Amino acid sequence: MLAEFAPLALIAIAPTGVNKLQSLCVSSSGIPKDSANIWVPESCAEITGTQVYNTSLKKHVASLWQNQRAFIFCLATGAVVRLIAPLLENKSSDPAVIVIDEMGQFVISLCGGHQGGGDRLAQLIATQLGAMPILTGGSASLELPAVDMLGVPFGWCRGEGDWTAVSASVVRGEPVQVIQEAGSTIWRTARGVEKSSLCFEETVDATAEIWITCRSFTDKNSTHKPSTHKSSKQKSQFNLKDHNYTDQSQKSIITWYPKVLWVGIGCERGTPRKVIEAAIENTLQEYQLAKDAIAGIATIDIKSDEVGLVELCANNNLPLRTFRREILKHISVPNPSQIVAKEVGTPSVAEAAALLATFYPSHTDKEPSEEILNSSQGKTKGEMLIPKQIFRLEGQPGAVTVAVAQSEREYTGRKGKILLVGTGPGELQQITPAAQTAIASVDVVIGYGLYLDLISPLLRTGQIIEALPITKERQRAQRAIELANWGLIVAVVSSGDCGIYGMAGLVLEELKVCGWDGKTPGIEIFPGITALQAAASRVGTPLMHDFCAISLSDLLTPWEIIEKRLQAAAAADFVTALYNPKSKTRTKQLTIATNIFLQHRNPNTTVAVVRSAYREDEQITLTTLDKLLDVSVDMLTIVLIGNQNTRNYCEWMITPRGYIK
Ligand code: SAH
After folding, report:
1. Looking at the domain assignment, is residue 141 inside a domain?
2. Confidence (pTM)
3. Which of 431, 440, 487, 635 minimizes the number of CB atoms within 10 Å of its CB?
């Protein structure tokens, strides 16, 4: 849980506090060693797993401040305020600071709430400890999206602007105009956006503007007006907005830069890094495109070891996409060259590579096959913004060709993950704390509408919630994989246990079909209380001896197989849980199953019929095998058939284990 906030410092001054902090660390898997230290004073030195600070706490916190992403204090809030006050700089660079009371009842997000991730960290810790998160940021308490967090899941870069003023406009509910020229619009479906005052249509009375763009600003200090593109096509597209904007220059503005620009490079062997760098910078400047919007560099595979290019990518943390000439030559480009074709076997390197990179902007993308390219007839998902420019730097060797394409979908630069989460039978209390934390931590939650409703208090503002109908399980799995491949952290929720007639198996099968390498996207599975456990706990201890589960749904399994298993379970005297016993259209299966069990077991065998266990409309019936078909049964019901020793005692179903003869 804490891994994404590492390195972090946990600080307590008394044993109870230290215990609280230790319990947090224990439940955090995947955290690198030494990147989450619990600091204690000399007086707590004997507690294992802690480190002692030898100076004053004030000096110690000051010495850690620059290198930590988060601080978690188990200390009085007043004391923490005094400790950190001299160290605070500004909200975009300050670490997250969290305060927990010694009893573990409250978790306060003290500062670094948005950009430092403090609010999210406080929520995760609170879920873990069963405590109340205290978030006092305007947007958090009003359940409005935080404008300085909107683009984080998609890897957008925060640009210029008056972030405080625009956030305040949103919190005050004033109309805030969104002008989006780049990147995907999925963020608009995030929880809270709908009820916010963000306007996507042209609004005359907006007090603030959010630009989501790849264009740079012409004058950072005065008007904050995003520049117009040099190409006439782009210009006409933006003319209207620019014009309106100039009329009302009093508005506060912020900019987000989605990473949509793929820079195609061709260069002479041995061109130094600084020449390539200058070529890119000059070109972007001339066309007034933002450097922060660069997704990556694209070129031909024979340049994958070009020292200047490799260095440039490493220094700027940019991916280097390389393509074979056989692939590059399929792409239709504005400026094909016969000379280049003769030399390297494709009429374009820079333009074709830039366009090709826009084709598959996600982390896991491989080079597209020739088959795909043929069917796309040379068209890509991107648009050529800057056709090739040739650049040389005086007094320096080498020459560079630069071309820039804009992709429809931004490069997130993140490795996505799918969390497969079981949400138990229905009541929030029956969801494991780990599953609750998992749900609260993700960017996207995908599931069947009914289950999402049941867990709605766990869903948080800013999350994208996708409810898909019950029959669309495959689409749900494919959607999760698509979003995770793109770099998002996605939870797929199933009721009960996700791996028992749930979505987990389908997601893994679907990944297998896609040729998954077992690692990307990452998978983590969070078990839940399955229906048979939930039902059993409501009626007694029917599962005290060997038992099995059989689903009576023959939609995916041939009925002969189900019947064979029913015969075997009945004959072997297993206590048997029947999942999916009956639907509106599937009615005969339960009759057949009952008759099979009657062939092997006494008609008096105890049977429990549990409908909607742990939900508001729960119904429980204890009956016997011969009367089972008189009880009303539907798809929200599970049937537990006892073995030959199971008894009904004072309305409790008891299967003996064998202790008492
Ligand atoms: N993954 C789920 C099972 C999904 S199959 C789990 O582990 O519980 C759906 C079937 O589960 C339903 O037809 C019903 O038989 C059973 N079921 C799920 N939730 C239930 C509940 N709260 N009460 C009774 N039966 C339930």
Report:
1. no
2. 0.84
3. 635
